[in-house]
Amino acid sequence: MKVILNSKQIEEILNDLTSRIISEIPPGVNVAAIGIRSRGEVLAQRLSGRLSKQLGKAVPRGTLDITLYRDDLNAPQGTAQPQVRTTEIGFDIDDKIIILVDDVLYTGRSARAAMDALIDLGRPKAIKLAVLVDRAGREFPIQADYAGYKADAAPGKSVQVFLAESDGKEEVVIE
Amino acid sequence: MALKRKNKQFKWHHKHLLGLRELSTEEITYILDTAKGFEQISTRSVKKAPPLRGKVVVNLFFEDSTRTRNSFALAANRLSADVIEFTQKASSVSKGETLLDTARNLEAMGIDIIVIRHGAGGAAKLLSRNINACVVNAGDGFCEHPTQGLLDVYTIRKIKGTLEGLKIAIVGDIAHSRVASSDMWAMTKLGAEVIFVGPPTLIPAQVNQLPVSVSYSLDEVIEKVDVVNMLRIQFERLGGNPFPSIREYSHYFGLTVERMKRAKSDILVMHPGPINRGLEMESEVADGANSVILDQVTNGLAVRMAVLFLVNQAAAQNR
Predict the structure, then answer these.
(1) What distance, in Å, lies between the first and last C-alpha atoms of chain B?
(2) What is the ipTM of this complex?
(3) Between chains, do A121 and B7 touch, taking CB under 8 Å as contact?
(4) Which class in CATH covers the domain with range A30-70+88-150?
């Protein structure tokens, strides 16, 4: 196991992502952060807090459960059966720039599922993808708009993100 | 914050839903938790999600139904499945085809899930043993109506938070009611205390073997229960004369405005439908502030989506 990010580095990445997002929001357009369950939920919460503070207005946040949109539902899944959870987005996504937040971008399959799920909720002005860790190994033509750390993890390795709110500690490891 | 990786080890493995009697508390809770995730599909702009895309669901109904049949059809549609509606009257059953032959022929067309309602107890189980498709019981004889039991506990849990420690009266024609049976299993497994209430002629003979208590007087229990579930008098199933007159039944076992005055102020009034207004329940009560009868219908949709999703998931594991 190798620690690739500690809590201070995670903090710095989130600050950096925040300023990059803010620099690209056109004036007069509303923005919202929507996290993919489960780690994306925590990260979206932190990003929306930072964005609200710096923009001086509330940036709504929501949580997206992508289980029903996964492309592997009809394949045998080994031990980890996908569990359907709730999607909690208490605002209208129409005409907003949606910052879609996840912990790790790897194959791109979750991001694809998330985009389909979002489009069933309305018509955002744009969807931008923000991730803490960008790992090689894409299987879909999807890239992050705001990528934090670029991880060099060999296939077969797993990149795991631990966050205080959900895991009681802050680090990203490769194992 | 509910972010913990819960239920990681739990795996749903039933490709059929035949009854609640054979399910564990954990399994029932898992269905209810799953159903929560399906509620929002019905409230958003595109009321459809793709998990059953390319699957075919057959509604195989040998008895009349409004709520259950439409609820299953809509649930299947919202999960993007194709739905075939089968009605006995317009089918070859009237030419003498057996249940199994009917089901096997439908299966030969490549269907994935059969939702069956049948007058004979055990019909769903019989199908599940003889065909490869998933089987969901939508009511078999006097035995079980599992999705009704699930939507009833889902409705109670959503409002009361838990069933643990609640007192629930199920009132009326218990003996002919598969709803009472599925409700009893689900409610007691989730920790509620169930009281069957009705005239002795409508209480099942072997009731002492069931995890319930019995009362022959609604007046005796109305003050102490948290939930009252009023069953429909099923005139189509009643033989003989189980009570002297409709007026007398209504007098002793009807949920009237008068009786409601003595009930807890936050009592939930439930009914599986269709209501005989003025018989089991006065209209003012059915439409009153404590009534959750229409919530039951709304929640039924989410519960049935969850059930269709889960049986298909279990089948996918063995494909």
Answers:
(1) 37
(2) 0.91
(3) no
(4) alpha beta
